[in-house]
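User: quick one, sequence for these tokens?
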């Protein structure tokens, strides 16, 4: 009887083992679910943070773009206002308005008189036609701002290989004729200052760079670059060439310009 009772007691204990195993399995499953939920939540929070950062970056870019557009619009409006103010004025009136910025008043008087006698344009023997060009900050300038000193105008683009070939010779001209007041001015006909900056650094350009809106200047449409125009202190064209020139051409034209009394 004692043995029978012990067997019965063991039989009663045995069903507890599957219950414990089942409970442990449930705990493991629940823990796995909780861990999965946690990692899913972390993943969602990370994705949300990344999306927020992306949206903030887009907003900053949009704001910067808007500011740039507003700045450009303001510059264009100022340029249009300046052009409108000059519209209808005679050459003499425009030149007279710039006289305060010219050191040699006698040269300006002669400049106006010669423009009426010889006409304006870009060919040799004419007085160079006035037009507007811009510095890197968007400030406008005019050919007549340089009356009073001989000027070598070089029209170029940074992607023109022949233009690059001319730079060392122009640098030499600038240094050799500095004491005689000769000024070398480069005018880009197709790009912005940001696009030209690498070219300036690469070619060690050491003279002022200006910019125009297109290839049509004072009614004259350039067929290509480089273009060289050398004027004397009165603004009379003493040298004109479409295409690349060498040092000898530059020196001859500049000599002619500085010799004008």
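Assistant:
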């Amino acid at each position: 009887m004692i043995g029978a009772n012990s067997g019965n007691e063991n039989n009663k204990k045995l069903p507890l083992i599957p219950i414990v195993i089942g409970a442990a399995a449930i705990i493991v499953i629940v823990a796995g679910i909780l861990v999965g939920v946690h990692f899913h939540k972390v993943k969602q929070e990370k994705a949300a943070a990344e999306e927020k950062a992306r949206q903030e970056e887009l907003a900053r870019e949009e704001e910067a773009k808007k500011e740039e557009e507003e700045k450009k619009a303001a510059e264009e409006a100022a340029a249009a206002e300046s052009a409108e103010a000059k519209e209808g004025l005679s050459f003499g009136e425009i030149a007279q308005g710039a006289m305060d910025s010219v050191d040699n008043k006698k040269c300006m008087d002669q400049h106006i008189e010669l423009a009426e006698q010889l006409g304006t344009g870009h060919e040799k023997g004419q007085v160079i036609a006035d037009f507007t060009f811009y510095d890197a900050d968007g400030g406008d300038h005019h050919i007549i701002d340089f009356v009073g000193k001989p000027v070598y105008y070089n029209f170029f683009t940074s992607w023109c290989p022949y233009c690059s070939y001319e730079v060392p010779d122009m640098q030499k001209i600038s240094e050799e004729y500095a004491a005689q007041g000769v000024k070398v001015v480069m005018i880009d006909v197709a790009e912005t200052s940001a696009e030209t900056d690498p070219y300036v650094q690469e070619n060690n350009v050491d003279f002022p760079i200006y910019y125009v809106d297109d290839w049509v200047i004072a009614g004259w449409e350039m067929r290509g670059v480089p273009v060289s125009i050398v004027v004397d202190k009165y603004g009379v064209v003493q040298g004109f060439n479409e295409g690349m020139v060498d040092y000898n051409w530059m020196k001859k034209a500049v000599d002619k310009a500085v010799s004008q009394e």
